[in-house]
Design goal:
The complex is a heterodimer of chains A (220) and B (452).
Chain A: E1 2-5, E2 14-21, E3 28-35, E4 57-58, H1 61-64, E5 82-83, H2 85-95, H3 97-100, H4 135-145, H5 156-169, E6 179-180, H6 181-186, E7 195-197, H7 209-214
Antiparallel strand pairs in A: 1-2, 2-3, 5-6
Chain B: H1 20-41, H2 45-48, E1 51-52, H3 55-64, E2 105-106, E3 116-119, E4 137-139, E5 153-157, E6 163-165, H4 167-172, E7 176-183, H5 197-201, E8 204-213, H6 214-221, E9 229-234, E10 241-245, H7 246-251, E11 254-259, E12 262-263, E13 273-275, E14 288-294, H8 301-306, E15 309-310, E16 316-318, E17 326-331, E18 337-338, E19 342-351, E20 357-363, E21 371-372, E22 374-376, E23 385-393, E24 398-406, H9 415-422, E25 436-438, E26 444-446
Parallel strand pairs in B: 5-14
Antiparallel strand pairs in B: 1-18, 2-3, 3-4, 5-6, 7-8, 8-11, 9-10, 9-14, 11-12, 11-13, 15-16, 17-19, 19-23, 20-21, 20-24, 22-23, 24-25, 25-26
The chains are: A alpha+beta (220), B alpha+beta (452).
Chain lengths: 220, 452
């Protein structure tokens, strides 16, 4: 993507023409926008830390940190820390089993374990082990949203521990090894390559020639 | 028309219709109970509506109706003989007491109601705007009660100037209003046995949204050249997270603070939500607190394990953003009664995530012939469009249905055509035609539910 910004001449007036070509989406979109302040000529120039309208407050990394919790699929932004399968087993029994079942078999919450080899069957069973493409997503999701009634209550080490246990139940992490950021990055999930791009529209128009001929004119 | 499609419940879809059977049974009980109550209240529904809200209600009210023959002098009703309620008795106005049945449909047998949904009673509504209190809901971590003075939006990542915004900040930006529909990707699943239009297709609504274009706010921070996606995150207990392609963010994405003229309702993301016209509803992150500009998608739980579309070969489609063209007849529809043969206007709604609706066709003979319906202005991009067709019902049992065509030329398919490509476990983006059976006695039911 190229972002072309014409230098400001006076005040805030600024053209911004953006051409984007997103790889993997199969199509390109061109968007042009013009941002013009109605009081352009009279406005004082803004501090460099603010934009065209001078709205908003500069945001530092330190201030953002408690909210900056999304983990990229390559493990970027995983925190320091580690957790063992044993610690995860204890935590799981106390905080997760009531909804997800003692062995991850599911209940009020999703099934977490098993289902290998079922995705192409008439009754596919989609679990962390059989369906999820990235182990990093497990850490991200548990940290942000679990347990259901007390999200963001687990420490980073506890999230590693519960992640280790759920992965262990799926045969994807050994009993005797602590899980950390490097460990999560190293896991190749079984369904990593099980996803395809959106192929829609995937259905041809249904109107047959006979039907098309039978369409009567508008009552307008 | 075929009605024998085999379907199986999906354990992955929290918005599927796995509770449909029990929901239908409970709904019938609810209808019976409400029908009796309505009959005791008022006789007017039997004479004012072309379509009774249900056969049960219509029959019950008819039994207590005042005779309406030619020789009975018109009554001067009680409400004309005394002043009504004083002005100001309702600081925030409510619907008539006689409209209590017009409510969102909640399935009675969900596993829990923290991550669940309600459906808009589309069969009870007119026009293209969904009242805010009836807008469909899909929550993943309940409905938070957020103090707008404490709410913040963080914008960071591949930008020149990471910024934090208050609600006052966001309202200072140039403001725009647009009418767009919003639809859940699981509207419905591939179990298609909803008894009413709400149960069958009620995870769709339409509103006028007011806010600031996302591209305006992005320009304020200065998006860098390598930006390809924006990871949007909610402040709810699910910290709901979806990755949005950057070109959608620069095209028509809105940061919304008002809906239909008033501030967003809590259920719709108060005080701030993202609105992505034409995209599956869950991506329009509610209670929006953070926008992380990145060069790759987050592969969040919601875009990998949840809102992906499984195919018969075991693979699954990902990043299936657009809602394809769809229509549904809302009157007469399931649970209603066509009171008598002769003129009965068929009414319904159509919409497409790819732009404007250009045509809706209606069939009143079980799909043998199709007739072009009239589109009611306005016909707006990525908004609900009303259609109507003047039907002369001959009193015989039949099946009525509608199909929409959008400006790309795409024609709404049958369920059979979708299932042939996607199988029955695809879970999402079912935009199939909904057929309604009209019995000789006028009762309307979902034609996919076998009778006898």
């Amino acid at each position: 993507m190229r972002v072309l910004k014409q230098a400001e001449s006076r005040g805030w007036s600024r053209w911004c023409s953006i051409h984007t070509l997103l790889s993997g989406m199969g199509h390109s979109v061109t968007v042009s926008l013009m941002l013009v302040s109605s009081a352009s000529a009279q406005q004082p120039s803004q501090p460099a830390s603010l934009g065209h309208y001078g709205i908003g407050t500069p945001l530092t990394e330190a201030r953002l940190a408690p909210w900056n919790i999304d983990v990229a699929p390559d493990g970027l932004n995983l925190p320091a820390g580690q957790g063992t399968v044993a610690a995860g087993r204890t935590l799981y029994a106390a905080q997760c089993a009531a909804c997800h079942g003692a062995q991850g078999e599911g209940g009020q919450g999703d099934r977490l374990v098993g289902g290998a080899g079922t995705l192409a069957s008439a009754k596919p069973i989609r679990t962390v082990g059989s369906y999820w493409p990235y182990a990093t997503t497990l850490y991200d999701y548990i940290r942000r949203a679990m347990p259901l009634y007390a999200p963001q209550s687990l420490s980073n080490d506890e999230v590693y521990a519960v992640s280790a246990y759920v992965l262990h139940l799926n045969g994807l992490w050994p009993e005797d090894k602590a899980l950390d950021a490097g460990g999560l990055r190293s896991i190749q999930m079984p369904n990593r390559d099980g996803f395809v791009d959106d192929a829609r529209p995937d259905v041809k128009p249904q109107a047959s020639a006979a039907e098309a001929a039978a369409v009567v004119g508008s009552p307008r | 028309m075929q009605t024998g499609i085999a379907v199986s419940n999906s354990d992955i879809d929290e918005v599927d219709d796995s509770a449909a059977t029990t929901a239908v049974q409970s709904s019938r009980r609810d209808f019976l109970r409400r029908g009796v109550a309505a009959g005791g209240l008022l006789a007017a529904t039997a004479t004012t509506g072309v379509y009774g809200s249900s056969a049960v209600t219509a029959h019950t009210t008819a039994a207590t109706a005042v005779p309406d023959d030619a020789d009975t002098p018109l009554e001067i009703p009680e409400w004309s003989r005394a002043p009504g309620a004083p002005t100001g008795g309702q600081p925030y106005g409510q619907p008539s007491a006689y409209e209590k049945k017009v409510i969102r449909h909640l399935r009675p047998n969900d596993k829990q109601y923290i991550s669940s949904s309600t459906r808009t009673p589309i069969q009870e509504l007119d026009g293209i705007i969904t009242p805010n209190g009836l807008f469909y809901e899909r929550h993943h971590g309940g409905v938070p009660e957020i103090d707008p003075a404490q709410h913040r939006l963080a914008l960071h990542g591949l930008v020149d100037r990471p910024l934090l915004f208050t609600m006052d900040d966001l309202r200072r930006f140039p403001s725009e209003s647009h009418i767009y529909f919003l639809e859940c990707s699981g509207n419905p699943g591939y179990n298609v046995y909803g008894k009413t239009a709400a149960e069958a297709n009620g995870l769709v609504s339409c509103a006028e949204w007011t806010g600031v274009p996302l591209r305006t706010v992005l320009a304020e921070a200065g998006v860098q050249a390598q930006a390809k996606w924006i990871v949007a995150e909610g402040a709810d207990a699910a910290a709901m997270t979806r990755s949005i392609p950057i070109e959608k963010c620069l095209e028509d994405a809105l940061l919304v603070y008002s809906q239909n003229g008033e501030r967003l309702r809590p259920e719709q993301g108060y005080p701030l939500r993202l609105l992505l016209p034409g995209f599956e509803g869950n991506m329009s992150i509610k209670w929006l607190r953070r926008l992380h500009v990145t060069d790759r998608p987050a592969q969040s739980r919601e875009e990998t394990s949840k809102y992906t579309d499984p195919l018969p070969d075991g693979t699954a489609r990902r990043f299936t953003f657009y809602m394809e063209a769809k229509s549904i007849i809302t009157a007469p529809s399931g649970g209603q009664l066509v009171s008598k043969p002769g003129f009965n206007e068929i009414r319904g709604i159509a919409w497409s995530g790819h732009g404007k609706i250009v045509r809706v066709e209606v069939s009143v003979d079980d799909g043998k012939t199709w007739h072009e319906a009239q589109l009611q202005a306005p016909v707006l991009t990525r908004a609900i469009t009303r259609f109507r067709y003047p039907w002369e019902w001959n009193g015989e049992a039949t099946v009525i249905q509608s199909r929409a065509t959008d400006e790309t030329g795409y024609v709404q398919p049958t369920l059979e055509a979708l299932v042939a490509v996607r199988g029955v476990n695809n879970t999402y983006h079912n935009n199939a035609i909904t057929p309604w059976r009209v019995a000789a006695n006028g009762e309307v039911t979902n034609a996919r539910i076998k009778t006898g």
